[in-house]
Each structure stands twice: as structure tokens, then as C-alpha cells.
Predict the 3D structure of the following.
Amino acid sequence: MEERNDWHPVALSTSIKPATSAGTRLFDEELVVWRDTGEATHIWEDRCPHRGMKLSFGFVRGDHIACLYHGWQYDAAGQCRYIPAHPDIKVPPAIKVKTYGAAEQDGMIWAALGPDLPPLPSRSATETLPVRSLYLRGGTGRALNLLRDHPPRSFTQEAGPAQIEPVSPTLFRIRAGTDALLIGVQALSGSRTALHIVIAGPAAAYQGAGQLHFLRWANALRHDAETVQVEPAATALGEAV
Amino acid sequence: MPALALYNYELDDACYKVRLALSILSVEYEAIAVDAFPGKEQTKPPLLDLNPLGRLPILRDGDVVLHGAEAILAHLARAYDGSGKWLPAEAAAFASVMQWLQFAASDLSVAREAREQALFDAPGDGTALSTEAARMLRIMDDHMTARSFAGASWFAAPHATIADIALFPAFALSRDFGVDHDEYPALRNWARYVRQLPGFTTMPGIPDYH
């Protein structure tokens, strides 16, 4: 499947703090996204080879992530390095977690399932501020229709209609007046989509009130998604039930 | 012998709120084990005399007998928190704490029902309860997302309050009723701060990261 080879956003950068992990899905595959204490991000299959426990339930220590069940520790390459029940054995190389491509730019963490890593698209913003990750029922097509039908108002000035344009297959830019948002689109599954929303602009202009402005827009978008019957290409503004 | 006695069931999330507050406030107490499952001891005399609603937790502090985790948290904060921060007196912060305590005791009790259905086969439609509990957690996540824009890490004040203690178990135990933490990034971050509170303690179902 070609789209598997694209880069896909899986979290806002600010949602994965140093030494934390979180679970997510991409095309229904369970992934653990974690950041080591050196701040590098890692994206792996969310499954400990020992007993199949989700590694996202575990915890990060330094540049290792440890499984919650029995404390097996894995290094940044996914190689098991330490088994607490057998502290003296050299861990066989075969005990390894499947790892995926991980990158960070535009305020988001990106995954590529491979096998080949595509080139990362060039950076779209020099500075970003997080708004939120929005989780919606339905596939990515429905989410994009919602975005087109419910564009945000500008924060910094009154302006004409917002414009949405693709930057890559999984990243969109919305311009509203002089404001710009970046929207990363994540296919959690065929029936659930995450939109990772950041402001492309300086903190001095948007921190606090600007973030809140676009948070309210995002929450209203979700409200419409859940209360209006949306069929692809059949929605229009003002159809609220 | 400590002046305080907590009628306690280790697997009860509401009892855990009280244990967590007692631990954070460094208050000594005696835990009186109640056979809540399968015995339902709290629904019968003599415990019914202490709480006619037949629920845990129940706290005895000298002559004072209290039931309802949120009321007990308020009592502990007023009686044993010298800093005055856990239940702040200032009007706005006090009211915000009360708002979230009320949410924890009423709206969020669906999480408790979902968990008791999943773990103890209590009555109810498990799927419907979990869905509604997830909606309540989302309200919490929305709140903490907005709070983060102002650099705030806690629900009701610039510092931790008993509101954070009352809200924590429903999120920390949500996997017990099939709701994962994936879609609540702001709550994940908040829970990390709760875990770092001096005196933080866990319960079965909430991992202790050794």
C-alpha cells in the first residue's frame, strides 16, 4: 500500500514530553510513540516481544523503554538490553521490537511505516504553537470535508474566506487572513481520524488568546462532526441540527 | 492508635481518593478492611449506620463520621493541610475546586460504574457506561488543553488541589473499563504531574513505575 510509505503525523510534539510514551494507531496498527530523556522520539510496534503487553503502558528510563509486565528494557534501536528476572544473561539479539521511521517537524511527530523511508517534506513553518489533537469518527476524507466546510475565522484580523491547501498527502495549510494553521491528518483506522492542529506563527502573537481562539474553533468542528449527519461532499455551513 | 479510621476496600477507586489524600497530607490513619466484593458488607448493618447510602468510603475522625470521597477530601484539607492550598480559601479558586469536586462526584461517577461493571459484574450496560465515561474524560482533557495555553498544570488553581485528587482515579483506571489513554494527551501530561506529587501512592490497576 503506497500511502503506508508516506510520513504520517501521530502526535503533537508537545503531547509527548521527555521520558514519556503514548499509544496510537496508524491504519489500525498499534504504535507506541515515546521520547527519551535526550528528547529523541521513537515509534515502534506497540507490543513487547515477551508477552505481547503494550509498551505504551510502560515507562521510559533514560534512552530505554521498559515493559510494565516484567520490566524488560529496550534501547533506542528496539533491542532488548535487560531482563530483570535474569539480570546476568546476555540478551539474545532476536529479542527486538519492530521499529518504524520517526521524525519531528512543524510541531508534530511523524511516522513512516516503511520498509523504505521516504524523504521528509521540507519544513512548513519556522515556529509553531500547539492547538490540539482532535479525534473524529470517520475516515480522513470525511475529516477533510469537515475542515473545508467549517474553516476557522482569523484571530489577528477580520478577513475573507479561509483557504485550505495541501502541503503533502498528510499535511494541510489553512490560511485565514494573515493567520496560518497546519493540520496533520492521521488515519487511525478506516473509521477514525486524528487532526493534529498547530498555529504556524510566533508565540508573541498567538500564545494564550490565539491558541484559545483556534481551540474553540477545533472544538466546534468536532461538535458539528458529531451532531450533523455528514456525508462526503454533501455538507454545507449552517446545516446544524 | 491514629485518630482517623478509614473504612476501606483496596480495589475501590473512591477509597483510593481518600488514601491518596491521606498519603499526600501525611496523615496517619487506621484502614479498616471492608469486604465490599463479594460480601457487600457496606450495604448492611452495622456499616449502614455510618453511611445509609451503603457506599464506601467512610471516614471516622474522632466524633466526626463522614461519607462521600469529596466531602472527606474537603474535611482532610481543612483539618490537616497547614498550607491552605489543597482547598484554597480565595473565592474563585475555591469555587473552581468545588465545581470539579461536584463533577467528580456526579458526572464522573459513570466511570466508577463502568469500572465496577467491568471488574465486578455490577449491573449496567458496560459499553454504554464506557462510552459515557470516555465523554466525561474528554471534557476533562478539553479543560486541561485550554489550561495548558496559560501554562497551568492543574485543574482548579495554579497548584494542585483536592480537585486533582478527586479526578485522578477515573483517568488512571480507565483501562479497567476499556478506555485507553491514547486520545487524552492533556490528561496524560496532568497525570504525570499528579504522579510526581510528594506522597503519591498507587492502587491495584495503577502501575507503580519502579
The mean pLDDT of chain B is 96. The beta strands of chain B are 4-8, 30-33, 58-61, 64-67.
